[in-house]
Amino acid sequence: MSEMPDVSSAPRTPPHDVQAEMGVLGSMLLSEEAIHLARERLAEESFYKLAHQDVFSALVHLSEENNAADLILLRDELTKRNKLEKAGGQAYLLELMEAVPTSANAEYYIEIVRQHALRRQLIQTAADIQKRAYENSQEVDDLLDEAEGHILAVRDAKDTGQTREINQVLQHIVARLEELHQRPGQLTGLPSGYYDLDGFEPGELVVVAARPSMGKTSLALNILHHVTTVQRRPAALFSLEMPAEQIVSNFLCVHNRLDTHEFRRGTLQPKDWSALEASLDDLVGLPLYIDDSPTLRVLDLRARARRLVHREQIELVVVDYLQLMSSNKMHESRAAEVAEISQGLKALARELNVPVLAVAQLSRRVEQEQRRPRLSDLRESGAIEQDADLVLLLHRPQEFSEEPDEVAGNEADLILAKQRNGPTGVVRLVFQRRYLRFESRATAATTTPGA
User: Which of 111, 133, 431, 442 suits 14 as a labelling partner, its CA being 20 to 30 A distant?
Assistant: First the structure.
């Protein structure tokens, strides 16, 4: 086998189109609208020719100063910067203005320049990845994660950067408020199926925590069921504890109100078989993606979630459960490792701009002390409490009672122990264990048992 060539050293001219660059600059000289469009989609480095970078920068500055971008002002601005001669002199500026008769095709020229700039950026990214790989100075998994992040950043490049002026943000917020005002009662964020809880905002880390057998996985499954079947919004579940077959079986029970014990024994009633068969066609195309890898590191989750967001446009990521994950490196303590995992989940939510819902375990103190859970009961790390935007503690009082009560035994309290942008409190639910369903108490009161 021959050695792999070092492609980064091949003497090739990077992709570019000088005529399209001239078309963009000429359009900007003719139209303020073309300037705004170019500013939105291009940056100085989007232009291959250095002279064009200087002209673009000067035109943007003139626009920011509320000056009309005519030939004389452009010449004066470049002269102030000692860039006029480097830009080709006044004769070249005139040539730019005459490059296009009108600005009607500005968007077309801008897109050509943008595409070539992205190609050059991708080439540079590939060269940087190759260089880092040859250096052999970091773990391969870290390098793969870094490389994927850089490549996806090129793919997602749609503007000149992350920095935005406050007026841009204000306009977005006001527009959103006006939209909500036109539709009173509509909640912001991704609906969970529980009105008192809604909704999960993009970029949020939501933690659902409880002791074993309290139903935290079932609650997460109920939320996924609402998001994917009622809202028809794509979502992903990363299950470290339960195989995909069991997840889908439980999902079918939730969806059709099937008795879980009868389902597992294959002794469903005729009406239940009919309901199950009728639901299959609708569920086949459901936008739910399940990853049941029993071992999952933050790096693995990030890579797989990125692909799902880009390929399937998922709007919710669920992880079950947080303490079963492992970090990317060795730590002195489990608490430090969980802290890294928690921080990684929060960073993932921010990066992908989707809510990430992480199921988590509470410490044994809740059972030992026979009490309602508190934030301090989050197992193994206080970092979870710090990183989470919303912490939901699931509590079923009857689990601690020595005298079972058929009615009270179904009650569940979802304690909003932390809500970064809202009040804390309690959401009153009913857990229908037979069907693995959590419902609001008002809804459950109107539902016939066994229906």
Answer: 133
